[in-house]
Amino acid sequence: MIFLVWMIFFDGSSWLLHRELDGEIEKLEGNKEYFENEIATDKSQIKKLTDSAGLERFAREEYLMKKDNEEIYIIEYEDSISPNDKK
Fold first, then answer.
1. 65 neighbors 71 (Cβ within 8 angstroms)
2. What values do phi and psi take at 64, rounded to 5?
């Protein structure tokens, strides 16, 4: 009985320690799946930016860049404006 109590609670490879480590492994595997999905998304984004048309589109949409002879108009919808900006 003493041996069993020792192995469950006090030993370096106790059941409690294994249970805690298993929980941490599950959490890290969830993080791994999330980051693998993010890597796949980033790879597809990089693939789109390799040609000049995709790069130009990204620059226009994200950084509001324009050519010398054109104007840019930003259209904001009523639901996209915060209440503090309406004043």
1. no
2. 55, 40
